[in-house]
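Try this one yourself first.
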């Protein structure tokens, strides 16, 4: 289905980018909304991640630039418009999708004017690399948020996908290392979740 194009003068590229981002609302994730049968989509997840950054920044393990963290949160899953969402515990699929995500970043951020597109893509790449304090914090929140949702939703996506406690611990080693104060609480709740049968 072809879409109409509208002339917005110097804003045209930005409007086209925003209309492309609308597709992120259709990318379903494995986690359901708390107390609701509907799965969350990647746009909702990105908003929730940005809100998590705003809310939990005072407890970050190291100093971060909150504006940059929020920007990374909002941009980090844009590539799923082309590549789709891959479950964090499916390591083979995560590896396989990397080339698709790079191509998606080139295409989608390429819709924007040169300097702006390059800045957005650089933030996305910084998040992916996870080496700066801002990127580490954004990544830690991205790992913690699904755990929190599962804890508040009876382990829904863990149960539906046969996730084991060992997988959660192994996949979140960086979170445990870089934000031990949060991990201490999460690990206690994860042990209880396993006892309740939410994790294998």
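Now uncover the answer:
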């Amino acid at each position: 289905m072809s879409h109409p194009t509208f002339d917005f003068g110097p804003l045209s590229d930005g409007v086209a980018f925003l209309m492309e981002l609308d597709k992120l609302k259709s990318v379903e994730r494995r986690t359901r909304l708390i107390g609701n049968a509907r799965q969350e989509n990647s746009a909702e997840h990105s908003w929730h991640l940005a809100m998590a950054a705003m809310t939990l920044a005072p407890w970050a393990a190291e100093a971060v630039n909150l504006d940059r963290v929020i920007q990374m949160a909002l941009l980090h899953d844009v590539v799923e418009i082309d590549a789709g969402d891959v479950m964090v515990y499916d390591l083979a699929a995560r590896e396989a999708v990397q080339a698709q995500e790079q191509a998606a970043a080139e295409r989608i951020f390429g819709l924007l004017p040169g300097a702006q597109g390059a800045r957005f893509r650089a933030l996305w790449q910084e998040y992916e690399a996870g080496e700066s304090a801002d990127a580490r914090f954004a990544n830690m929140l991205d790992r913690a948020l699904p755990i929190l949702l599962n804890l508040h939703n009876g382990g829904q996506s863990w149960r539906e996908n046969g996730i084991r406690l060992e997988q959660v611990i192994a996949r979140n080693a960086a979170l445990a290392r870089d934000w031990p104060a949060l991990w201490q609480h999460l690990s206690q709740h994860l042990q209880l979740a396993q006892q309740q049968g939410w994790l294998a």
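Discussion: The two ends are 44 Å apart (CA to CA). The mean pLDDT is 94.
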